[in-house]
C-alpha cells in the first residue's frame, strides 16, 4: 500500500509533461504542440501532454514498419520474444501501486478498483505469452497420398491500437499484449482524456528493453492522430475500443487501405431478475454491475428488468443501497464512486437525468457533499417508472445511472431485453436452471452471465453483437486476429498437371 509521502512524490511526478514514445525514445510532437490533462476530482490541470498529429503518426508507423520488416522482433526465437513479454508483466507488477495511483488520479476511478485493473494488466501479458507458446501450432491435412497441406501463423505487420479512457491501462494491455506476443509491432493511440498510464506503459516497455520501434505511443486527439493511424497505408490492422459511432467512422475511414478491424463498442446491457432469484446476491451484483468504475463500464448492467412479484421489495432495497454508496476522492481507499472523467461527460450524464424527467420517468439521485463540488460528480442514480422505449432505456449513458423496468413473464422480458440496438452483455438471475440457460440463449448479446456478476476467465471470447462490436478479443480469438493464417500445399506424389500447348 502506498504511503502518504509516496503519494506526494507521485503527485509531484505527474507534473512532468508527457511525451510521445517513438522508435525507443521519448519525444515532443513534431509541431511542438501540447494539450492539457485535467484532474477529474479537482478540475485542475495535472500536466501537459505532447499533441501528436499526422506527422507524428507517420514517424511512429515508419519506426514500427522498419522494426517489423528489418528488426529482430518477428524472427527471434519464440522463447526470446516471450522473455520480453514476461519481463513486461513483472515490471508492471513492480509498479502496481504507482500505476493504480496515477490511473485513479487521471480518470477519477476509485483506487480500490484501479488496483485490480492493474493486476489484470500484467496477467494479460503472461496469459498471451502462454497462449502463443501453446497455440503457435498449425494443422496438417493429408490429401490422399498426393499432398500434405499445413497451416502456419505469421504476425500481420504494424498494429494500430486505439483505446478509450474508461479503463485505460487494462484495455491498452489487453490489446498490446497479444499484438506484441504474436510478433507484430505496435502504434498505440491512447485516449486523450487519460494519458498518464499509457505513458507508464511506455516507460515499462522501455525498461524491458524491447528492440527500437517495436512499441510506439502517440498521444493526441481522435480526429487527428487517431484518424491518421486509421488511414495510414502501412498499418495492417486496427483494434479499436470506444463508442459505437466512432467505430463506424473508423471502419469507413479504414476502407481505402483495406485494414482488418476489431471493434469493441458501446453497450446498454440488461440484468433480468426473476421472482425466484437469490434476492441478496442479485441485489449485490446489480449494484456493483452498474455503479462500479463510476458506471463508466461498457458491460455495465444499465437496464434492470424486475419481475413484477419482487418489484417493490427489490426497488426498496436498491434505494437503501444506492443512497449509501460512498462517493469521494478516487485516491481514498474507501471510495466506491468517484468523479466522471471530464466536464463534457459530466454534462452528458446530467443531461440524461433531465431527459428522463422529460420522458416522464422518476429520477432518484443524491446530493454531492460541498467538499466535492469541484469534481465531476454525479451521485449514484435510479431512474424509476421507466419504459423500454425511452431514450434513457435505449442509449448508453455511461455513468452511475440505473434504469429500472418491470416484466410479467419470460417471453415478455426476452422481447424487451432484445428490443435495443446494442448487444454487448446480459445478466440473468433465476434459480430455475432450465430457464437460466434458455433466457441466456435467447438474449442477443456477445456475453451472458447466469447468476453471476461479470467475472471473466481470460480464455473466453470477449465482445459484442449488433451495434456493440465486430469480432472477439480474448483467448485464442485475440490470437487469431493478430496473426495471418497461411496454408502451404506440398505435393508428395506426381499428381496430374494439365499440359497446355504440349504437342
Ligand atoms: P471514443 O469513441 O470517444 O474514443 C475512443 C478512442 O478513439 C480515443 O482514443 C479517441 O481519441 C479515438 N477516436 C475518436 N475519434 C476517432 C477517429 N475519428 N478516428 C480514430 N480514432 C478516434 O470512446 P470513449 O468515450 O473514449 O470511451 C467510451 C466508450 O467506449 C463507451 O461507448 C464504451 O461502452 C466503450 N467501451 C467499449 C468496450 C468494449 O469492450 N466493448 C470497453 C470499454 C469501453
UniProtKB/TrEMBL annotation:
The active site is at 264. Residues 29-488 form the Aldehyde dehydrogenase domain. The keyword Disulfide bond does not apply. It comes from the Bacteria. Pfam families: Aldedh. The keyword Oxidoreductase applies. Keywords: NAD, Oxidoreductase. CDD domains: ALDH_F8_HMSADH (cd07093). Belongs to the aldehyde dehydrogenase family. This is 5-carboxymethyl-2-hydroxymuconate semialdehyde dehydrogenase. It comes from Sporosarcina highlanderae.
Amino acid at each position: 500500500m502506498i504511503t502518504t509521502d509516496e503519494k506526494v512524490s507521485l503527485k509531484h511526478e505527474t507534473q512532468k509533461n508527457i511525451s510521445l514514445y517513438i522508435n525507443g525514445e521519448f519525444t515532443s510532437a513534431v509541431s511542438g504542440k501540447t494539450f492539457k490533462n485535467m484532474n477529474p476530482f479537482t478540475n485542475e490541470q495535472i500536466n501537459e501532454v505532447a499533441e501528436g498529429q499526422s506527422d507524428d503518426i507517420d514517424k511512429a508507423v515508419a519506426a514500427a514498419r522498419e522494426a517489423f520488416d528489418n528488426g529482430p522482433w518477428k524472427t527471434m526465437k519464440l522463447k526470446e520474444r516471450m522473455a520480453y513479454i514476461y519481463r513486461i508483466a513483472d515490471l508492471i507488477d513492480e509498479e502496481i501501486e504507482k500505476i493504480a495511483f496515477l490511473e485513479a488520479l487521471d480518470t477519477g476511478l476509485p483506487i480500490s478498483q484501479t488496483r485490480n485493473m492493474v493486476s489484470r494488466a500484467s496477467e494479460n501479458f503472461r496469459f498471451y505469452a502462454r497462449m502463443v507458446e501453446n497455440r503457435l501450432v498449425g494443422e496438417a491435412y493429408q490429401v490422399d497420398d498426393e499432398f500434405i497441406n499445413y497451416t502456419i501463423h505469421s504476425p500481420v505487420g504494424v498494429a494500430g491500437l486505439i483505446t478509450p479512457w474508461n479503463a485505460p491501462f487494462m484495455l491498452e494491455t489487453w490489446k498490446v499484449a497479444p499484438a506484441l506476443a504474436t510478433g507484430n509491432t505496435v502504434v498505440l493511440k491512447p485516449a486523450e482524456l487519460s494519458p498518464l498510464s499509457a505513458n507508464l506503459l511506455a516507460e515499462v516497455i522501455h525498461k524491458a528493453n524491447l528492440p527500437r520501434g517495436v512499441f510506439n505511443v502517440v498521444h493526441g486527439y481522435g480526429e487527428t492522430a487517431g484518424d491518421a493511424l486509421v488511414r495510414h497505408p502501412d498499418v495492417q490492422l486496427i483494434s479499436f475500443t470506444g463508442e459505437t459511432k466512432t467505430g463506424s467512422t473508423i471502419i469507413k475511414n479504414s476502407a481505402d487501405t483495406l485494414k482488418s478491424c476489431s471493434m469493441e463498442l458501446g453497450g446498454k446491457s440488461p440484468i433480468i431478475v426473476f421472482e425466484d432469484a437469490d434476492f441478496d446476491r442479485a441485489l449485490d451484483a446489480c449494484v456493483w454491475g452498474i455503479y462500479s468504475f463510476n458506471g463508466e463500464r461498457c458491460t455495465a448492467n444499465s437496464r434492470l428488468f424486475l419481475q413484477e412479484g419482487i418489484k417493490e421489495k427489490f426497488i426498496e432495497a436498491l434505494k437503501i443501497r444506492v443512497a449509501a454508496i460512498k462517493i469521494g476522492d478516487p485516491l481514498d481507499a474507501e471510495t466506491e464512486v468517484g468523479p466522471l472523467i471530464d466536464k463534457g461527460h459530466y454534462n452528458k450524464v446530467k443531461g440524461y437525468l433531465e431527459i428522463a424527467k422529460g420522458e416522464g420517468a422518476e429520477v432518484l439521485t443524491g446530493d454531492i457533499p460541498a467538499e466535492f463540488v469541484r469534481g465531476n460528480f454525479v451521485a449514484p442514480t435510479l431512474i424509476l417508472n421507466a419504459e423500454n422505449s425511452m431514450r434513457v432505456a435505449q442509449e448508453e449513458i455511461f455513468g452511475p445511472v440505473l434504469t429500472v423496468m418491470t416484466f410479467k413473464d419470460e417471453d415478455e422480458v426476452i422481447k424487451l431485453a432484445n428490443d435495443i440496438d446494442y448487444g454487448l452483455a446480459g445478466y440473468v438471475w433465476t434459480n430455475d436452471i432450465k430457464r437460466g440457460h434458455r433466457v441466456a440463449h435467447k438474449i442477443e448479446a456477445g456475453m451472458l452471465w447466469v447468476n453471476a456478476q461479470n467475472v471473466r476467465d481470460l480464455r473466453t471470447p470477449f465482445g459484442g453483437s449488433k451495434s456493440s462490436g465486430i469480432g472477439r478479443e480474448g483467448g485464442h480469438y485475440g490470437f487469431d486476429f493478430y496473426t495471418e493464417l497461411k496454408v502451404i500445399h506440398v505435393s508428395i506424389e506426381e499428381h496430374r498437371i494439365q499440359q497446355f500447348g504440349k504437342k
